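Quick start: what a row looks like.
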Amino acid sequence: MLFRSGTATFYESDVEVDRCACRQARSEDALNIVRCRFSIIGLSFADAASDAIDLDFTDGNISASEFKSCGNECMDTAGSEVTLGEIKIDGAGDKAVSAGEQSTVSAAGMDIRRPEIGPASQDSSKIAADGVGIADGSVGLAGYRRKKAFGPSIIEINRLQTHNLKTEYLLEQLSSISVDGVALQPNSLKLKELMYGVKYGKASRS
């Protein structure tokens, strides 16, 4: 039996998605892209039970797309290089954008509302973004290490606006978050022990 983690899965097959919609996906990932190049324009997700997009060891871009009421993460990356542009997120049960396992995520223009956690970088990953709004959520930004095989993480954001967040950011020692060139001070220890549904976020399946 072939196990598919996504409602739609692309494996080692380059893909272009143009102006599509995905509603009420009930799989682990609404869209899973693995080991290929991709381009996504004008994709709309709503009411995904778990992750909307899972990107594993991929290289590509997502632009002019929106995510509404995702049960877990809107975008989850592992070992990937991803460029985001003009992204709208309204409701994330866990992270709005999760960069992991040496991923690099570059973003220009993100409007994030009602996230449990906004952009999060972990495990030797980097998020670099310009023009980000985060409102009405639990945690704005998070930088930490989860897996021993990897190192600390980086978040660099210019033109950040936040409103009505319970916690502006969570940051471990060695990882770094800077806003408009100003480094934020670490304020957390062993953050992974507080994430994934313990105090912040949602329980992980892996």
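That is the whole record. The first strand starts at residue 6 and ends at 11. The chain has a mean pLDDT of 91.
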